């Protein structure tokens, strides 16, 4: 309060305290920490460099304390907290799997529900309130978003495919192939990420990633997968190649800023912490 108002008297009035009590509290804290938190002039006070750092950390601690109280109050009622997550399947099985496990372990009293859908469906579900947050590579200007990171897209080819002679694949080289796409709206993402993707006209859809992989293994065609999805699938008799030029997708955590709640904050913070651990 003192740092924001830059005046001890004004802060005392705002806090309904005496000026001497506020001043004594600051002096006691400075003595305890053995640093000067405020630079005092005749008419105002300003945080010192270390003082500003202390203020920033204190604000985080206060916010965390409020989150803990809210979380515990939810655990003690008959209506527990919940979080509804809408996501494209590849994100749930890939980059978000560790974060979801960590969130469940940290907050066992929060019931988490996962709705799998296409990129467009995820956006729509968050907009209308069916889901609290969404994980998608497509974002809307109507929703707040947090960048979860970028991952590379790879061509998945059957063993013995002619394109395996090189370490990368150009779109023009596979223009005549049947492209097996997972029916999660990924075509929108690939069209944005891969140049000249409109030349891939011969496409069929699969509702599951493992089905698409099995089709490629049995010579139906080729597919495109994000890096995280490849670690979750049976890749026997299959090979991967990067694109030339390389292609990437960016995943976002999206939510309606007007309906932000404590569970969304906790989930976002868990993702940030999980990324720092990794």
From TrEMBL:
Name of a matching Pfam family: HTH_1
This protein's GO CC annotations: protein-DNA complex
A Gene Ontology molecular function term of the record: DNA binding
Domain HTH lysR-type: start-end pairs: 1-48
Keywords assigned by UniProt, alphabetized: DNA-binding, Transcription, Transcription regulation
InterPro entries (alphabetical): LysR_HTH_N, LysR_subst-bd, WH-like_DNA-bd_sf, WH_DNA-bd_sf
PROSITE patterns for the chain: HTH_LYSR
Coiled coil: none
UniProt family annotation: Belongs to the LysR transcriptional regulatory family.
Protein name as annotated: LysR family transcriptional regulator
Source organism per UniProt: Gluconacetobacter sacchari
